[in-house]
Amino acid sequence: MSEKPILIKEIEIGGRCLKLETGRVAGQAGGAVLVRYGDTVVLVTATMSKTVREGIDFFPLTVDYEERLYAVGKIPGGFIKREGRPSEKAILSGRLIDRPIRPLFPKGCRNEVQVVATILSVDQDNAPEIAAMIGASAALHISEIPFQGPIGGVIVGLVDGEYVINPTLAQAEKSLMHLVVAGTRDAVMMVEAGAKEVPEDQILGGITFGHEKVKEIVEFIENFREEALALGLAKEKITPVLAQVDPQVEEAVSGPAAEELTAAVRQCIERRLDKQAREAFLDEVKAKLVESFRETFPEQEQSILAVIEAVEKKIVRRFILEEGVRIDGRALDEIRPISVEAGILPRTHGSGLFTRGQTQVLSVVTLGAISDEQILDDLGIEEAKRFMHHYNFPPYSTGETRPMRSPGRREIGHGALAERALEPVIPGEDTFPYTIRLVSEVLSSNGSTSMGSVCGSCVALMDAGIPIKAPVAGVAMGLVKEEDRVAILTDIQGIEDHLGDMDFKVAGTARGITALQMDIKIPGISADILEKALAQAREGRLYILNKILEVIPAPRPELSPYAPRIIHTVIDPDKIREVIGPGGKVIKKIIDETGVEIDIEDDGRVYIAAVDPAAAKRALEIIENITKDVVVGEIYTGKVTRVTDFGAFVEVVPGVFGMPGKEGLVHISHLAHHRVNRVEDVVKEGDTIVVKAIGFDNQGRLKLSRKEALPPEPREAAPHHRRPKGRQGRH
User: Where found in the cell (predicted)?
Assistant: First the structure.
């Protein structure tokens, strides 16, 4: 038996070598590719079930992004010491791969497809999610799976005014944006970005720049498949069994359905029905249509309904393209009525209620100490983060019932998008030393709750008195495209998202974009369409920003009375152990006595958090006393602790919790400007006196002077003595 060949091909991306390998590992998967980019290594497999999954009306694609902490030389935290549920980063990376490949499978495919990316080694200069995306494309392409790719993907940075492909860690720290671009040779399929108020034209330039490199990657993967086929390492594509409607049902139902639904949709437009009223009205029309064909096509109710819904989609799209009007009667660039309320919750640290049409989001901000930051246990270099945004989507927001479970991929993805949009305007730890948690509760949903979360959260941040750099708003854009006819929609609602060809979310300030996410349901869109969508999104964003600023034009000047007050100081790192004390005894006593929270960083930064400012001030005084050094030449107020024949010992820095303070000796000659015969004539034990530090003796003991801390004594009139005259001569 001859040895199986191994295929390895290389391409340069961002000045570094990317290798694709197949034939060595995971031979039973439909397609398996080992990707190496620098020292980042990812195994990606793609496998399809042999049979159709019955009883579903969607394509069952799953993308699993499996982080292994050995990839960065870590042992998992916690008691069990093995990887558990995916981290947020893993979930977001899986979504990043899913979104550009999902539209490239045949419509009606019901075979389960699973893509698994296992992260084996991570070099922080080479993003594993990009290696995984390219690997997923290659694994699908060499498999028998009917994938209409391949795709490529890159990260585009903006460093010193220049675009950079897949920036290194050092470049990423200086970059003004993190822009992920994925697509086919012909068009962009997915864009996701976080940016620091970058103008639209630079974002568009970055997308175009990234797509040029994507084209090279696509060609590279196509050549990889051709060579793999020649070596017997790739498979011929299969023709799947696609879910289709019976042609007789389609022919019989389409005409009557079009007539009934055109009239029904026109009524919705003219009456400007809201979501519930529209759905109830259209459901009634559809039910009558299904009933009218039930006898003709028994046991084909699902097929009848599928035809009706396909007709409804065409009609709604036709009204948009031909008449420039949407199902709720709005113009293409019209935003639904907006309501903004700030500070509606009395005891929270900040709150904002944002309503746009029937989409309503309540955002609440909580301020905490630095120790409240989120600890990260993933493959990245960051160990914690102090700004968090969490998104909740309860079933009542759509008028439905379902079990309330932990956040799913959708909730995590929407929460991360809003967090990315707001992060560039959050003040730094040096000026605002708080951990900030935002929670957005979707109270009502009819389109773009993620952008509603951005707007509500901006209001909550300002209501909390957090000095954000600029207000942020977001808007969701849609697209209807048929051949050369294109309509771009501002502020899409749920039905337009469902029936349209694009979901394009843009958030930012008046200066520029802070976050962007685009998903395409058709095989890509052109740069011209992107440019128009960005320009129209900017107009919508500025309109919404003005609505927010009418209600709360700037962050409140004071924090909520229920928010902790954090004061900070810097101590000598060598004195940290004195503040903590043996076994943490000292810091525990400070906390018990004052009721504050204390965080001490390794570099000597100390943060004290307390709702009561007086308690924070008291804790600060204690810490300052513990760490205070006596400076020669400074004046101190101290307490006399002992009196001896030769002087008085004075404590200039008091001790705490039984620990000795700092004391020195005032020699009898330094007690006063005049001669002192007995120390007790000037001071007694327990007296509080003013002294000056004048130095240290050869044994390091502190020397103090009361005399030098006092103003000169007034010169007293000395007794008048007649000078004796010189000896007189004899008489």
Answer: Cytoplasm
Consecutive H or E run containing 443: strand 435-444
CA distance 8 to 3: 16
Spell out the residues 6+ positions from residue 729 whose beta carbon is closer than 8 angstroms to its own: none
Helices (H) and strands (E) in the chain, counts: 14, 29
Query: Among residues of the chain, what percentage have pLDDT more than 70?
Result: 97
| Token pair belonging to 393 | 């989507």
Helix (H, G, I), strand (E, B) or coil at 352: strand
Q: φ and ψ at 69, to 5 degrees?
A: -70, -20
Task: Give every CB contact of residue 152 below 8 A, 6+ residues apart in sequence.
Answer: 134, 137, 182, 183, 213, 214, 215, 216, 217, 218, 220, 221
C-alpha count within 13 angstroms, C-beta hemisphere, residue 190: 20
Q: In the numeric block, which tokens belong to residue 401?
A: 């019932």
Closest CA to 452 of 462, 442, 460, 461: 442
The answer to whether residues 159 and 14 touch, using CB atoms and an 8 Å cutoff, is: no
CA atoms 207, 213, 215, 217: torsion sign = negative
Answer whether residue 473 shows pLDDT above 60.
Answer: yes
Q: Identify the DSSP state of 606.
A: E
**Quick check: 160 and 170 in contact, CB under 8 A?**
no
Query: Measured between alpha carbons, how far is 461 from 350 in angstroms, rounded to an integer?
Result: 6
Compute the distance between CA of residue 226 and CA of residue 63 in angstroms, rounded to an integer: 25
Give per-residue pLDDT as tens, 243-265: 888 889 989 999 999 999 999 99
Whole-angstrom Cα distance, residue 626 to residue 575? Answer: 8
CA distances to 124, 178, 376 from 170, rounded to whole Å, are: 10, 13, 21
CB neighbour class for 412 (10 Å; exposed up to 12, middle 13-18, buried from 19): buried
Q: What are the binding residues? A: 497, 503
| Token pair listed for 47 | 């496998």
**Binding site as annotated, residues for Mg(2+):** 497, 503
Placement of tokens 């020669």 in the chain: 632
Amino acid at 624: E
| Preceding peptide of 150 cis, ω within 30° | yes
How many whole angstroms separate alpha carbon 368 and alpha carbon 93?
Answer: 29
Comparing CA positions, the residue from 111, 114, 41 lying closest to residue 71 is 41
Q: Closest by alpha carbon to 44, among 123, 104, 132, 128?
A: 132
Side by side, the strands of the sheet bearing 485-490 are: 162-165, 152-159, 177-183, 188-198, 513-520, 502-508, 473-482, 485-490
Tell me phi and psi for residue 79, to 5 degrees: -80, -40
Report the C-alpha gap between 118 and 519 in whole angstroms.
24
Token reading at 601: 């960083």
Residue 715 pLDDT class (50, 70, 90 cuts):
low
- Report yes or no: 166 and 130 within 8 Å, Cβ to Cβ: yes
**CB 44: neighbour CB atoms within 10 A?**
30
Q: Is 231 helix (H, G, I), strand (E, B) or coil?
A: coil
- Distance in Å from the first CA to the final CA of the chain: 153
Q: Any idea what DSSP says for residue 331?
A: B
When pLDDT is cut at 50, 70 and 90, the band that residue 430 belongs to is: confident
Helix (H, G, I), strand (E, B) or coil at 713: coil
Stretch (H or E) spanning 197 = strand 188-198
- Contact (Cβ atoms closer than 8 angstroms) between residue 340 and residue 353: yes
Average pLDDT over residues 486-492: 94
- Using CB atoms within 10 Å of the CB of residue 297, give its burial: 0 to 12 exposed, 13 to 18 middle, 19+ buried: middle
Which of helix, strand or coil describes residue 599?
A: strand
- How distant, in Å, are the alpha carbons of 52, 85, 106, 294 from that of 244? 13, 37, 12, 19
Q: Which of 125, 104, 6, 53 is nearest to 381 (CA)?
A: 125
Give 268-282 as a DSSP string.
HHHHT--HHHHHHHH
Name, in order, each residue with C-beta under 8 angstroms of 421's C-beta and a sequence gap of 6 or more.
194, 454, 472, 474, 507, 508, 514, 515
